[in-house]
Design goal:
Chains A, B: Catalyzes the synthesis of the hydroxymethylpyrimidine phosphate (HMP-P) moiety of thiamine from aminoimidazole ribotide (AIR) in a radical S-adenosyl-L-methionine (SAM)-dependent reaction. Two copies of one chain form a homodimer. The first copy, chain A, has about 600 residues and is α/β, with parallel strands linked by helices. Chain A has 21 helices and 17 strands. Chain A folds into two domains: about 400 residues, Radical SAM ThiC family, central domain (TIM Barrel); about 35 residues, no CATH class.
Amino acid sequence: MQTITTRPFPASRKKHVSGILYPELKVPFRVIEQHATLEVWNGVTRKTPNPDVWVYDTSGPYTDPDQTVDVYTGLSQTRRNWVLGRGDVEELPDFSSEFTRNLLQDSQTFPNIPRPLRARSGHNVTQMHYARRGIITPEMEYVAIREQERLEGMQEYIQQHAGQGFGANIPREITPEFVRSEIAKGRAIIPANINHTELEPMVIGRNFRVKINANIGNSAVSSSIEEEIEKMVWATRWGADTIMDLSTGKNIHQTREWIIRNSPVPVGTVPIYQALEKVGGKAEELTWEIYRDTLIEQAEQGVDYFTIHAGVLLRYIPLTARRRTGIVSRGGSIMAKWCLAHHQESFLYTHFAEICEIMQAYDVSFSLGDGLRPGSLEDANDAAQFAELHTLGELTRIAWKHDVQTMIEGPGHVPMQLIKENMDEQLKHCFEAPFYTLGPLTTDIAPGYDHITSAIGAAQIGWYGTAMLCYVTPKEHLGLPDKNDVREGVITYKIAAHAADLAKGFPGAQIRDNALSKARFEFRWEDQFNLSLDPERARSFHDATLPAEAAKTAHFCSMCGPHFCSMKLTEDIRRGMQEKSEEFQEKGLNIYLEAAGVEQPT
Amino acid sequence: MQTITTRPFPASRKKHVSGILYPELKVPFRVIEQHATLEVWNGVTRKTPNPDVWVYDTSGPYTDPDQTVDVYTGLSQTRRNWVLGRGDVEELPDFSSEFTRNLLQDSQTFPNIPRPLRARSGHNVTQMHYARRGIITPEMEYVAIREQERLEGMQEYIQQHAGQGFGANIPREITPEFVRSEIAKGRAIIPANINHTELEPMVIGRNFRVKINANIGNSAVSSSIEEEIEKMVWATRWGADTIMDLSTGKNIHQTREWIIRNSPVPVGTVPIYQALEKVGGKAEELTWEIYRDTLIEQAEQGVDYFTIHAGVLLRYIPLTARRRTGIVSRGGSIMAKWCLAHHQESFLYTHFAEICEIMQAYDVSFSLGDGLRPGSLEDANDAAQFAELHTLGELTRIAWKHDVQTMIEGPGHVPMQLIKENMDEQLKHCFEAPFYTLGPLTTDIAPGYDHITSAIGAAQIGWYGTAMLCYVTPKEHLGLPDKNDVREGVITYKIAAHAADLAKGFPGAQIRDNALSKARFEFRWEDQFNLSLDPERARSFHDATLPAEAAKTAHFCSMCGPHFCSMKLTEDIRRGMQEKSEEFQEKGLNIYLEAAGVEQPT
């Protein structure tokens, strides 16, 4: 087994917060310790401590030196008691899927598979169902706590600019009741399969922090189970809020089992991929029975959300005929091929109500796939794309009738001036169900840099109201991402999501920015590194030119050198202002500061 | 001397276009050759050629195997005849600056320095002056040709989405007369010092393509002359439209000379840096006389634009007292320190008219520096920043009275929801003089990735109307960029600028996107690489998993593998539609296509 990355972040420790409704909750945060501010003023050194900065932490126990992780055992099944405690599930004697049962003895199989849970007959175990009945679940209180910034002692950092939310409705404090009401309305989801009890719940919705997803998974030409587990750990380390296992190669079932048992974040899949493998890659041979068994197989493993391309209707396919790049969604093109071969609507559409019944028995959330998303700028916002979006809205209504949690996938390749229309149409036609977009990429001409072409679009659409951003790595269009690509993609998307949170005015979003800028201004280099999204890279870039320990407190860096450091000069200026101010005060004058209407520095 | 990068781009050759008003012009383009499209249809292979794609080329003769470059000689002084031909300049017997004269025998001095030119007494040699007198210069026709896309034979690629220009006024065709009128109005500049006759003229203005600048230059702790020349060549290779030499270390004068003599793009500087070196780094010892001599020294070398922080007024400095990060512009902090020490307005402000007289004698353009730009989100759009912007507007009026070309520098660190206000204020208070912004960075928390935090903001402000984007590299805030950082920064900013051109609807902007997407869809991997902003990286990323030559025509890549390639599936779908269509046509039906209101594929 290849090594799993477990080193903690520098100057950081894991802290857990308990609930009020549910005192047993242990909601994880990463707490970054800061150095004191040192000021030399008239020859006297004054040392002022700086508070810990609490940050949202997706990395699970892997970054906690107090916890031992054994990937052969899997993570602790913390949620199992919560699920069982609701009294509406049963432990099945065996897996419902024959396909699963046949693989249990396979040498690649995870050694410690839990017994599958399912809703008892006549019960609905979705978070939406509870929410609509007025029940606040442990999951809801958990995510409410998780969304908050720690504000105590942060007075100096709390200031932030007013946001522009384009109709979002973000409260000053995220309460468990607010979470419940958002889920009840369909405006947010907590993807949390009752069979993935290892996960640390998180919420996806326009009125919460913008989330990011990282795609991992092997393909027929590359990658192994070990690599995929490490990619999951690696992606969540850098900040992935969910991962999707898009494996299409060998051992799809087993790979997924290993990933889920070890994943602290929700896991999504596209079940049609595996169904296609079951029929030897021949789309036209897919059947509802094979697909249905695949859904149950994956639901009993604990997949938290399914991408289902049920909006690809027969009559929309000709709308793609004149496109520059046709159908670029894998699932979309598989279903289109099936529809044409059979000349009928897909079984995803015709059996949608039955799919809802499966979803509600395990609390799997829908991610209604945009099978007809544009794959090039030229195809953006075209008739095919928006026709499918309207159908996804109709399907959302059906899912909600079954109390099944639902989000909607979005594009793709879209030039900047057309991005907002995507958000507006989605809000309107899908009734504010959370939007989950891939980028969008704002130009087609930069393969090798598509994490950047798409981060530009992702930040904007996140600002406009998208709830989760699916990352794009530098390898997009060119090959399967490796670990470096995953890190680059995740950090890039954390930037986009955070920029969106700031622009929307999410309460407390600017605390980390303010803390880091304060550290920067005070030449606390270590704190600047530690507060950054990627402390290891920040440090190594600094040390590339100034590796000496002394440089970590120097009042300059190699970018400008000592004479040209503006921050160093500003120190002098402020002292100058202070001295001038004192001088003038003695003379009964206070020219500088009064003229500018500014209070004096104290 | 370290090796200068001269390899041409793959499948590319340099072509030159001559003028109509000035037939001797040789306006450079890079022409990318494409492979033919191969279609197998009913067993017959049809080969359809694809046209050459012409792209804007900033790389000068370095990427042209037909030209020999010798950095000891410098580039051809093509513009010298144009300048002399206007009959309004004189060749000086010697350099006006004593500082320059003293360095001529220095061992580091460039061996082939041209004799300096200056406007004859009573003459004004700026492009703005000519433009206002109705004269279309060779420079104006040159940039008009350069801004155009080559449209002949591109019918299949010409389609693009309508732009949203926020009041920009981009014509369908850029004519020399349009260039002249934009320059006359102050809405555009052609930075082109009469002493930098090696340069290939380019235009900066809201109604032209968005440009990017790359900062190079040594600092006291790093870098050599050789490295800086190669950085210039390297930056323009990847697409820098101008470079700024921000050297603050040793041999500033000589480094600049080598760069200018070898630079095909305009070179900007911040003269106060060198002036500060002349007084041993003590800001308060700066004088107008030293600064004035530095301006003349640099103007006679051929610097094309000067960043001058003349808007830092005494009364604005206290407005920065409560800022999170004070004054972060190097020039701004130097001038603030001077103002405070002397308790008077800076010589940049008090001698502004004299500075204009120097500018007009050499046609150096102003880049009015934003010395009080915000260095952290918290300081964005504050009183200090906007107070200075208003003063820059007043100075623009004075510069324009002298017919001196002027652009305005902008921030900095700005959260997304506050970016547009920057553009709106600038347009309003600076009368549509071109805006030239640094990013802006949309969050402070990602040192090591600030090319990305800032590209998000740069694309937006470019869309809103900024004419030139100053790049930010991954090393921002951490150290001096190396070659890899320069490449990463330039490509990232080309993406932002191009995304802005697309969003504004610049005519022809989408041609390259359409061509690349067509190549992608047709599995012309080589063409996909060759049409991209960084062909070398695109190819190496692809080859990381599928290095074999055969994979360059394969109908899949390692991202999805052969069974899951949506584009491969779309081919099948289109054939399916075609066959169905034929089948139904025989039966007198045409269900698919008519239902969708789409013409049949032919």
